[in-house]
Amino acid sequence: MTNKDAYVIAIDGPSGSGKGSLAIHIARELNFHLLDSGAIYRLLALKAIRQEVNLDQENEVLPILDDFNIRFESGAELAVPFLDDEDVSAELRQETIGEAASRVARHAAVREGLLSLQRSFLKPPGLVADGRDMGTVVFPKARFKFFLNAGIEIRAHRRYKQLINMGLSANIAHLRADIAERDERDQNRSVSPLKPAEDALVVDSSLLDLTQVTELVLSHIRENV
Ligand code: C5P
Known about the structure:
The structure is a single chain. Strands 2-6-1-7-8 form a 5-stranded parallel beta sheet. Strands 3-4-5 form a 3-stranded antiparallel beta sheet. The protein has a single domain (7-212), classed as 3-Layer(aba) Sandwich (Rossmann fold), CATH 3.40.50.300. It is 47% helix and 17% strand. The chain contains 11 helices and 8 strands. α1 packs across α11, α2 packs across α5 (95-104) and α9 crosses α10. It is α/β, with parallel strands linked by helices. Bound molecules: cytidine-5'-monophosphate. Residues 15, 37-38, 41-42, 98, 101-102, 105, 131-133, 182, 186 line the site of cytidine-5'-monophosphate (C5P).
């Protein structure tokens, strides 16, 4: 199989919609590569914080891309993210880093600078790409596009459980407020705002568990591939 035959399954949606877990399941089921684009923005935010740059200043964040040494290693469950050869998986999932990621993600030149890195993840037999603009900007020709959504209360509860399971502390009211703020920032930014691609299949996962969403998405892919 050549790179030309490899295809993309784009999964976009807001924070806590379950797209990350869905992407992992689909990639595993189809034996596809995985791009967690949120992790790339989080890695950039972490590096920016470590260098004490102003996250809201594009001209301060942009130069970090010139020396952005990241990689993902396959782990038992998820791809393990490394920044400058250090495993930063625990730090990366913290809400403060998610919030910082949504600030660096607002800069047009930063988004542009990350395009080729994200596209380089597409290799045979194919790629499951999860994020906010996979189907709209990064892979506009993706063969399949899904937009996963769920009510904010449900998303806050899911995030809460996720953090507690990882042994991190969490507060449901704070999480809800953080998610609302992040939604607002992601949906209203001028570049690549969070929105379903015109040709995306929108899935509301509020009343579905991960197995049900995975089955729905997989059967859509198998019927249309
Ligand atoms: O998906 P995750 O919560 O890890 O993403 C962190 C932040 O990175 C998001 O709130 C969003 O602002 C940004 N992001 C983005 N475009 C993507 C993926 C993530 O702007 N494709």
